[in-house]
Design brief:
Number of helices of chain B: 6
Strand content of chain B: 15-25%
CATH topology of the largest domain in chain C: Uridine Diphospho-n-acetylenolpyruvylglucosamine Reductase, domain 3
Largest sheet of chain B: 5 strands, mixed
Order of helices and strands of chain C: HEHEEEHHHHHHEEHEEEEEEEHHH
Number of strands of chain C: 13
Structural class of chain C: alpha+beta
Distance between the termini of chain C: 49 Å
Largest interface: A-B, 59 and 60 residues
Number of strands of chain B: 5
Strand order of the largest sheet of chain B: 2-1-5-3-4
CATH class of the largest domain in chain B: Alpha Beta
Helix content of chain B: 25-40%
Distance between the termini of chain B: 61 Å
Shape of chain C: globular
Radius of gyration of chain B: 16 Å
Oligomer: heterotrimer
CATH class of the largest domain in chain C: Alpha Beta
Strand order of the largest sheet of chain C: 3-4-9-5-6
Number of domains of chain B: 2
CATH architecture of the largest domain in chain C: 2-Layer Sandwich
Chains: A alpha+beta, B alpha+beta, C alpha+beta
Bound molecules: flavin-adenine dinucleotide, FE2/S2 (inorganic) cluster
Number of domains of chain C: 2
CATH topology of the largest domain in chain B: Ubiquitin-like (UB roll)
CATH superfamily of the largest domain in chain B: Beta-grasp domain
Chain lengths: 800, 163, 272
């Protein structure tokens, strides 16, 4: 599809369709769903990181007021199947309730169903579980050792996945390069932590044999997977997508929760709801993010040209697999970042430990990888005494090189990295920023400028599944839209997923309005449930502007063609002689010879005698779109094309540090962003601002820290520190537009924007600030304590 | 063992409400579960996120840290009570829509309560004052930028309307 | 009530600390006694040498009280750091003192100024100095059947009295990692006639350093004297370690922040 040049609605300021219901308190979140006779669940969680369950005594709980049922792993695991595993590790089975052993502190051991949540909690406290503690392992490197305690003994080791990819003449480049560096970059375990926890309500109807589910989800194939685990046919599970999701950014997967609640409602015959409280969410909600270190090696020349890069990435997924190991797979598709690096070695390693399982987090592993690459670029610059901007520009893929295929086989569609970086530097007035930094330094405080330039692969399929597990041949990743024009002429778009603030209703109405030349305000967008829906893969991987936008456009074009065909039939002319304008169709050059929108709609719905032969009556069209450019299996060397579009972002930030306390303060923040054509700029900017704030959290504040005995030390919002409006500074975004040649309007993805570069930029700024002391920090989050220690270590070293 | 119930009467969004409630029922649970005022949200139940903010006698407070019995004899305003008397959006609500001051909408009711309370006492706040007023309300979607802009816009528009 | 139920009953003031602990089921009182509607516990009275606040006076009320701010400015300076507007709208002065978090701001102010706590039980009333009142982390010497009724905050009468509060927390509004409060009075020549300062978060209770402060009297509070005092104080602290701050870091911060608070207090006094 070709990029259009001028648009009527796309790119214009437009209020989001979703907003009025939220600002008036009329959102419909899962916790707002009250079913008649509904019962509530509370959980008993393991206090141990690793233990054998000796016995569970439930009698006292069963006798407690208002209690209906107590479920343990014994019964649950006998009657349901394991959740999907993803990588090739069939013994790493996973159920909502532990049976025989617990593998992390917080793992669910029993569920109580009662009249209210408070009563269920009261009863849960009366369940007596006897444990026999077993050895545990928390550190991923220790977990890889031969004598490590095994998280899943049946699997035989703690290693879930390991492979060394070599793309291009890596060793040769290392042998010939003028310079080499090696260092370790550490990405701390953090996650997206939406303000709404996960929740699910379910109701089994024995009359119809249908399990209805309302859940706070953002999960591809959710209905299928729930059905499979419950041993139901797919058509016995109906997931309602008209539930507003209170933020997700990747983590709202909730399979284990839904299977548990589904089982309970089926067993008990009453509707059951489970809404995590914050402690359950942080500890046992299985939504912690990547926990990864990178051993980086770079080979480069004196002029700054990077010849080759070796990345060993070790990622700790916690106690179970799920989809999380695939977060090492996505980065394959942008493994050299925006740089023309000819040879890459990538060694992803996925390890299990006795920690809470990991879930997908915004960027699916890309942000940690970008952080490692961007730290490497700054280290190259420092090694050479070059300006890091120069090193970036020296290595950027040039505008005239697109489409550009990187060593791992992925082709970047388009971009102008030099222009975006220049624009960003101009917007922040880089010269004066440097002066401001130096001014602060002269006053005795520390200050640093951080830059990061990186990519957001978007709109892809899920072929990292087959890349990392040949038995898992998944190359299809479509999305769909159904468009209906009713007898009154009003347009309705039907979408097939729930949303978590991405504005899909606004997106689809704008696209339909654009193609059909009708006012988006008048277009309604509704959500099919999973039994009436067309195929969708939910809003993951920055895909909806591309895939849902593309599907909506495709369906709208079919409607347009139908209307034109009706007019042509009645004018007895060829469609080529007609033109479509504002919803009516007229003969070219004779604007009065026309059928209006209303007339055409009337023919389609009621006047079969005027309908061209072979045309379906009524006026509706569906369009199912498969990811452009994808679909092939990986080559034997692991080269693969997954994402069609690559958005680019450049961050420039000034950080000031109080040298006496180590407290960092972000003083200036500008982000240049090129995601092609923006369908709704406010929405794109909003996600980018939010992504930056989230990145600030990952860089400076947020960490799921574990004690040596395997306890989560940040199990409340008092210790898991999400930045507030006082930590996030005023943010500015500079737009640039390089349309994608592959999408309907030239759009690219943007749902992960901001987050993909912010942690890297802030880390680079802190390091620039520490540079005059000769100190550096390559581990996130960079706590006040870490900064102070780095300063202190250097000061101490200087004074001795 | 049934829990002892206590009689309370609370004015909620201008309407007197009476009920018999257990002492341990939190204000937010009562609003949501018994009065079906589900606009007020729960994000942590330990006082940090601010999603549960309501006004008590015009001042913003955390409804997860109060029991209904403590609201007895007081006035409570929730997000559902912010609209103009004719039911249309308040200037602040409309400004949130205009600047895209929300995404998923989960923190939004708390943000509206916090910032409406700010504007009631300070019609012309600085950016720093706005940030301070929402410093106890976490939002994971917006990075706060467009929320701050919404409050600035609302202040401007209210100043114009007052003229 | 407290007399009847003893340990199993708890007073509920603003609920900003107690309710979260109950929600997490860390505390499970059998009885809760709500003292929010007890009018006699809610007042601010500014007298000649002392300002009195009822224990159940809301933090926001204390923060806004101009007369109080004029006589005991440390209270307003400290409250700026306590939680957020929403928590100060409910949280009470007495609740914060009784909760006795070693990182909390108001207990530090009480300790530095030598506030006196009026405790009452069915058996009678007694007064405790702050120093005696705070007995350890989240612990006071109030008996389970005693209610904190009033707090007496000494007001200094020197015209040139300046005070300051500062702290470091990871996020704004969080409990401090370390905090510091100082109050100094100087004569017309700029010589210190009285000084008091302390740090929070660097031990089991907030700490005041009256002996070290006494050494500042007679000096001009120049930077060197201030720095010596602050470092001497820091050396006396015995902080613990947690997720966000090590003991060594806390001790260092105690010195840095105490010096800052003293300097800022001095500047305020000099400006009068
Ligand atoms: C998000 C958030 C951030 C916060 N940040 C800070 C901060 O930065 N600094 C800070 O200092 N505090 C902070 N707090 C706590 C807040 O200041 C509390 O208000 C305070 O600690 C307790 O006061 P309260 O009136 O709410 O007491 P409650 O929570 O009602 O009670 C606390 C304890 O004191 C006892 N008690 C209360 N009143 C009396 C009395 N009169 N006599 C005897 N015992 C009594 C109670 O039984 C209970 O054990 C924060 C709270 C929240 C929710
Ligand atoms: S739910 Fe009340 S503050 Fe989070
Ligand atoms: S709009 Fe989603 S949390 Fe604020």
């Amino acid at each position: 599809m070709r990029a259009m040049t001028s648009f009527r609605y796309i790119g214009a300021k437009r209020r989001a369709k979703e907003h009025p219901r939220f600002v008036s308190g009329r959102g419909r979140f899962v916790a707002d769903i009250a079913l008649p006779g509904m019962k509530h669940v509370a959980l008993v969680a393991s206090p141990h990181a690793s233990a054998r369950i000796v016995s569970i005594k439930i009698e006292k709980a069963l006798a407690a007021p208002g209690v209906l049922y107590v479920l343990t792993g014994e019964e649950f695991c006998a009657n349901t199947d394991s959740l999907a595993i993803g990588v090739d590790a069939p013994k790493v089975t996973r159920f909502a309730l532990a049976k025989d052993v617990v593998r992390y502190a917080g793992e669910w051991v029993a569920a109580v169903v009662a009249d209210s949540r408070a009563l269920a909690e009261d009863a849960a406290e009366r369940i007596e579980v006897e444990y026999e503690p077993l050895p545990h392992v928390i550190d991923p490197e220790a977990a890889l050792k031969a004598d490590a305690p095994l998280v899943h003994p049946a699997h035989g080791s703690n290693l879930l996945y390991h492979r060394t990819f070599v793309w291009g003449p890596v060793e040769e480049a290392f042998a010939n390069a003028e310079h080499k560096i090696a260092f370790r970059a550490v990405w701390g375990r953090s996650a997206t932590v939406p303000i709404e926890t996960f929740g699910v309500a379910a109701q089994w109807d024995a009359g119809t044999g249908i399990l209805d589910i309302w859940a706070s989800i953002q999960m591809p194939k959710f209905p299928d997977q729930v059905a499979r685990a419950l041993r139901f046919p797919g058509n016995a599970v109906r997931v309602h997508h008209d539930v507003d999701v209170g933020g997700s950014y990747g983590v709202k997967r909730g399979l284990k929760h839904a299977v548990l609640v589904g089982y309970l409602t089926k067993t008990l015959g009453v509707p059951v709801r489970f809404i995590e409280d914050r402690l359950e969410n942080l500890r046992g909600g299985d939504m912690q993010g990547p926990d990864r270190f990178f051993d980086m090696q770079l080979a480069f020349d004196t002029d700054g040209a990077i010849r080759a890069m070796k990345i060993r990435a070790v990622d700790d997924v916690g106690a179970y697999a799920g989809r999380s190991p695939f977060q090492l797979g996505k980065p394959v598709t942008a493994i050299c970042g925006p740089y023309a690096i000819g040879a890459i070695e990538y060694e992803p390693t996925s390890v299990m430990t006795n920690k809470t399982p990991q879930e997908a987090v915004r960027g699916f592993g890309q942000s940690p990888t970008n952080f490692a690459i961007e730290r490497a670029i700054d280290r190259v610059a420092r090694h050479l005494g070059m300006d890091s901007i120069e090193v970036r520009k020296r290595n950027f893929i040039r505008k005239d090189q697109f489409p550009y295929t990187i060593p791992s086989g992925s082709t970047y569609d388009s971009g102008d990295y030099h222009a975006v970086l220049d624009k960003t530097l101009a917007a922040i007035d880089y010269g004066s920023l440097v002066r401001a930094r130096d001014e602060v330094r002269r006053s005795g405080r520390l200050a640093g400028i951080g830059i990061a330039s990186c990519l957001e692969p978007s709109g892809g399929n899920s072929a990292f599944e087959v890349l990392m597990n040949p038995k898992n041949e998944n190359t299809t990743w479509m999305d769909s839209c159904l468009v209906r024009v009713d007898l009154s002429g009003a347009i309705t778009g039907v979408i097939n997923n729930s949303s978590a603030g991405q504005g899909h209703e606004s997106l689809v109405s704008t696209v339909l309005g654009e193609i059909l030349e009708r006012d988006p305000e008048t277009i309604r967008v509704v959500r099919a449930d999973s039994l009436t829906a067309l195929p969708s893969n939910s809003p993951v991987g920055s895909r909806m502007a591309i895939m849902l936008g593309g599907a909506a456009a495709g369906a709208a074009k079919t409607i347009k063609e139908t209307l034109t065909a009706i007019a042509a039939h009645n004018f007895e002319c060829s469609p080529e002689d007609l033109e479509y304008h504002d919803g009516s169709v007229n003969v070219k050059g004779a604007s009065s010879k026309k059928f209006s929108w209303d007339q055409l709609v009337e023919i389609a719905h009621r006047k079969f005698h005027k309908l061209p032969p072979g045309l379906e009556p009524g006026l509706q069209a569906k369009f199912v779109w498969e990811v452009p450019t994808g679909g092939a299996l990986p080559t034997p060397e692991g080269r693969i094309q997954i994402y069609p579009c690559y958005a680019f972002e450049a961050h420039v930030v000034l950080v000031e540090i109080d040298p006496d306390t180590g407290k960092p303060m972000i003083r200036r923040y500008v982000c240049g962003h090129d995601c092609g054509v923006m369908i709704n700029p406010d929405i794109v900017h909003g996600m980018t601002y939010g992504g930056i704030a989230h990145g600030i959290g990952a860089a400076l504040y947020e960490k799921f820290a574990y004690t040596e005995d395997g306890q989560l030390a940040s199990g409340t919002f008092m210790d898991y520190l999400i930045p507030s409006a006082m930590e996030v500074p005023a943010l500015a975004i500079v737009d640039h537009c390089t349309p994608s040649p592959l999408t309907t309007f030239g759009q690219k993805g943007s749902g992960e924007a901001g987050y993909l570069g912010a942690p890297a930029a802030i880390a680079n700024a802190v390091n620039d600030a520490l540079d005059p002391l000769g100190a550096s920090i390559d581990a996130l989050p960079i706590s006040h304590l870490a900064i102070w220690s780095a300063i202190g270590a250097r000061k101490g070293a200087a004074s001795t | 063992m049934s829990e002892t119930l206590h009689a309370v009467s609370v004015e909620v969004n201008g309407r007197p409400r009476s009920a018999r409630v257990p002492a341990r029922l939190s204000l937010v649970d009562w609003l949501r579960e018994d009065l079906f005022l589900t606009g007020t949200h729960v994000g942590c139940e330990h006082g940090i996120c601010g999603a549960c903010s309501v006004m008590l006698d015009g001042q913003p407070v955390r409804a997860c840290l109060m029991y209904v019995v403590q609201a007895h004899g007081h006035r409570v305003t929730t997000v559902e009570g912010l609209a103009k008397p004719d039911g249309s959006m308040s200037v602040l609500q409309d400004s949130f829509c205009e600047t895209h001051g929300l995404q998923c909408g989960y923190c939004t009711p708390g943000m509206l309560i916090a910032t409406q309370a700010l504007l009631n006492s300070n019609p012309d706040p600085t950016e720093a004052q706005i940030r301070d007023a929402i410093g106890g309300n976490l939002c994971r979607c917006t990075g706060y930028q467009q929320i701050v802009e919404a409050v600035q816009l609302a202040a401007e528009r209210m100043a114009k309307e007052a003229k | 009530m407290l007399a009847t139920h003893g340990e199993s009953a708890k007073l509920l003031a603003g609920g900003q600390s107690l309710v979260p602990m109950m929600a997490m089921r860390l505390v499970r009182p059998g009885w809760l006694v709500d003292i929010n509607e007890i009018a006699v516990l809610k007042f601010v009275a500014v007298e000649k040498d002392v300002a009195r606040t009822g224990a159940c006076t809301r933090q926001c009320v204390v923060e806004r009280d101009e007369a109080l701010a004029a006589r005991v400015p440390l209270l307003r300076q400290a409250l700026k750091w306590v939680g957020h507007i929403q928590t100060r709208n409910r949280g009470t002065v007495g609740g914060s003192l009784a909760h006795a978090d070693p990182c909390a701001e108001l207990p530090l102010v009480a300790q530095v100024l030598g506030a006196r706590m009026l405790l009452r039980s069915a058996k009678g009333a007694r007064t405790l100095e702050a120093e005696k009142f705070f007995s350890g982390p989240m612990a006071t010497s109030a008996r389970p059947d005693e209610c904190l009724e009033e707090i007496h905050w000494p007001a200094w009468s020197w015209r040139r009295t300046g005070s300051a509060f500062t702290e470091i927390s990871v996020r704004h509004g969080d409990f401090a990692m370390v905090s510091a409060a100082a109050q100094v009075a100087i004569d017309g020549d700029g010589r210190c006639v009285r000084a008091a300062f302390g740090v929070g978060g660097a031990g089991g209770t907030p700490l005041a350093f009256p002996k070290i402060a006494a050494r500042l009297v007679g000096t001009r509070l120049d930077d060197a004297a201030v720095s010596d005092a602050a470092h001497a104080a820091a050396a006396e602290t015995q902080p613990g370690s947690d997720l966000h701050a090590s003991a060594e870091y806390r001790r260092h911060l105690a010195g840095v922040l105490a010096a800052r608070a003293l300097r800022e207090a001095r500047e305020r006094a000099r400006s009068l």
